[in-house]
Specification:
The complex is a heterodimer of chains A (110) and B (113). Chain A is built from no helices and 12 strands. By secondary structure, chain A is mainly β. In chain A, β10 and β11 form a beta hairpin. Chain B has strands spanning 4-7, 10-13, 19-25, 31-38, 42-51, 54-57, 65-66, 76-78, 87-94, 103-104, 108-112. The radius of gyration of chain B is 13 Å and the shape is globular. Classes of the chains: A mainly beta (110), B mainly beta (113). The interface between A and B is medium-sized, with 21 and 25 residues.
């Protein structure tokens, strides 16, 4: 069965610092992988997705993620965090249906 | 504009009073799904539909019903709501068989007292 683990429930970073959010998945075949962001009181917005090909994918808002098959990971990164990036981030695997991780809440401090 | 529209955004109701949360999409997507989001549990799938008149249970279907009479609409029905159904609900849609990811509605925050 598909599953997603986001090991970090809450992360706090300083504005301007780099960010890495971890995601590990379990999937029987080549996975489709996604990162979504949910700002407070909002719905979920797709940041980026991986289907195949280049293992480093670029998304919106300056985010990128790297697929590592050997580690079953799809970690999300951003070189310099802005205060507006404070939100909850969800990793997901699959297609129809999508299976979501429990999320990582990102706080940004000045 | 391509979108998934949920109504209402907020709802407070009493235990046992039947309610329906509507979901409509304008993208001609075959696949539609309902999720509930609870703190510490992430998003859990309630029901999904692969096309008109084709629905199936997700991970947490107890206490919910759905219908898919038209391709664009996928209402979520709580026939006898209970306090443990207090949650944030999301409807989502996607083309079937294409890994484009879901388009989500803005959410419905339901409180059952």
């Amino acid at each position: 069965a598909q599953s997603v683990t986001q090991p970090d429930i809450h992360i706090t970073v300083s504005e301007g610092a780099s960010l890495e959010l971890r995601c590990n998945y379990s999937y029987g075949a080549t996975p489709y992988l996604f990162w979504y962001v949910q700002s407070p009181g909002q719905g979920l917005q797709l940041l980026l997705k991986y289907f195949s090909g280049d293992t480093l994918v670029q998304g919106i808002k300056g985010f990128e993620a790297e697929f590592k098959r050997s580690q079953s990971s799809f970690n999300l990164r951003k070189p310099s965090v802005h205060w507006s990036d404070a939100a909850e981030y969800f990793c997901a695997v699959g297609n129809t249906p999508l299976v979501f991780g429990k999320g990582t809440r990102l706080s940004v401090i000045a | 504009e391509a979108q998934v529209t949920q109504n209402p955004r907020y709802l407070i109701t009493v235990t046992g009073k039947k309610l329906t949360v509507t979901c409509s999409q304008n993208m001609n997507h075959e696949y539609m799904s309902w999720y509930r989001q609870d703190p510490g549990l992430g998003l859990r799938q309630i029901y999904y539909s692969m096309n008109v008149e084709v629905t199936d249970k997700g991970d947490v279907p107890e206490g919910y019903k759905v219908s898919r009479k038209e391709k664009r609409n996928f209402p979520l029905i709580l026939e006898s709501p209970s306090p443990n159904q207090t949650s944030l609900y999301f409807c989502a849609s996607s083309p079937w068989g294409h890994p484009y990811g879901y388009t989500f509605g803005s959410g419905t925050r339901l409180t059952v007292v």
